[in-house]
Amino acid sequence: MTGHASTHALTVESLSDGLATRRIGRRIIVLPEVDSTNRYVLDVLAEGEDAAPDGTVVFAERQTAGRGRLGRSWHSPAGASLLLTVLLRPPDRLRCVASLMMAATVAVVRGIESSTDVEPTIRWPNDLYVGEGKLAGILVETRGLSGRGLAVAVGIGVNCLQHAGHFPEEIRSRATSLELASSRAVDRPAVGRAILRALDDWLAPSDGLRPEVLVEAWSQASGDIGSRATLVCDGARFTGRILDVHPEEGLLLQLDTGARKSFDPATTRRIC
Ligand code: BTN
Predict the structure, then answer these.
(1) pTM of the predicted model, to two decimals?
(2) Which residues line ligand 1 (CB under 6 A)?
(3) Which of the listed residues 40, 59, 67 should we mutate to test ligand 1's pocket, taking the one with most ligand atoms within 8 A of CB?
(4) pLDDT in tens, 4-42
(5) Strand 236-246 to strand 250-255: parallel, antiparallel, or no bridges (unpaired)?
(6) Strands 268-270 and 260-263
């Protein structure tokens, strides 16, 4: 799309240069175009003759049917973003997918902070914002395997090189990119490597994801605790103050009506 796209092309070499991770990125695939990297990971790489190992990462320069949360779509012009999906094969089928989602969200923040001068904040459940503009989103999807295992696709979309005119008009005032938020040129492979390293820091340790550690890191990177939110769940609208966020219990809201209620990120839409 811009000059940056050719100088900072995504290739297996540029994304694995000095990577030194334990789990994430042990195999890296770069596709020029795919419908959705999440779909590709779950339908093509999860099992069968193309089955890929745990920690495989698929990047795409363009998606023709990128998926967002709650059935929404995710648009990006070719060569403008980091569009990637990590394949995880958790050893324990019951291991909490919501924990993986929280850990991945914290990791994307840390990866962006360590490779740019941008400091995103997390907006529950797993959106990254700079000011009022959405910078990145994360979509975690799973697939039960015929051998009873579970494949988890951690899909990440980070707007990198877009300028305002690249965003569809209906989201232009609510979207941003690293290029718009940063005073420096954006090196997509460097940001990609930093995100993979941060994901590895959070997802490779064998002692698992301790809820209190996750909640602490997540809260530090989010301005949400104590702020107001309006959520839509089961067709009803709820407004109140955010009291807490937890991997298993979801978001705890002190409703304006006086009651307290927990919300599951898988079924809740946040409207402000
Ligand atoms: C959201 O904010 O709704 C989540 C957006 C997630 C988008 C990424 S882009 C790479 C991966 N492949 C997809 O189809 N979706 C995720």
Answers:
(1) 0.95
(2) 36-38, 63, 66-69, 72, 74, 83-85, 127, 137-139, 155-157
(3) 67
(4) 444 689 999 999 999 999 999 999 999 999 999 999 999
(5) antiparallel
(6) unpaired
